[in-house]
Automatic annotation (TrEMBL):
The Thioredoxin domain, residue ranges: 39-213
Family named by the database record: Belongs to the SCO1/2 family.
Positions that bind Cu cation: 91, 95, 178
Source domain of life: Bacteria
Keyword flag Metal-binding: yes
CDD domains noted in UniProt: SCO
Disulphide bridges: 91-95
Protein name: Electron transport protein SCO1/SenC
An annotated Gene Ontology molecular function: metal ion binding
Gene source species: Hydrogenophaga taeniospiralis CCUG 15921
Keywords linked to the UniProt accession: Copper, Disulfide bond, Metal-binding
Amino acid sequence: MPRFPVSRAGAPADPRRRAATLWLGGLALGGLLAGCDQTPLGAPTPVFKGIDISGAAYGRQFALTDFNGQSRTLADYRGQVVMLYFGFVQCPDVCPTALTRAAAVKQQLGADAAQLQVIFVTVDPERDTPELLRDYMAAFDPSFMALTGSPAQIKAVADEFRVYYKKVPTGNTYTMDHTALSYLFDREGRIRVVLRHEQTADDYTADIRQLLAEKPA
């Protein structure tokens, strides 16, 4: 079974957290086994570099607020491939790595770059203000969008995507453990692929190109 990594600033993952994350990973794979095939009749079945979860009964929607104060749902990005990632601004390495890779993917897409929307969902709404999220996204790519909400709203979206996150005290402050996966949606707004943190920009680009090449069902 593939490992589903958890980001934790500056410390190895606790075995109990790792076990919980692997359990969530098992649920994600279960979505693949239980899901229905969404490939149009007669079309070749895509072979993704990531985990194909087409037809999964989770990760179907979100309702949050962007850093401009505008309400956002998945339907706002219909017609684009969406890459969704959960993280937090003060993450020292995993989140910056994920966003740097996403920026590299957009460069690799060339003329098709505008057809990909990268969305970052904060798991630390207490500290990640809209202004901070706007500046953080701009540091990687001006097209990247960040979403936030109340703690209850964030939890509801994380639960919908089976994402693990937890506040971890560190001295007089805290960090966040969180699932470090990227989710891809096709142009119709259907969740299709989970990509692991250790995968390369080339892997991400290859799967996004497959989704861009698909004709509407």
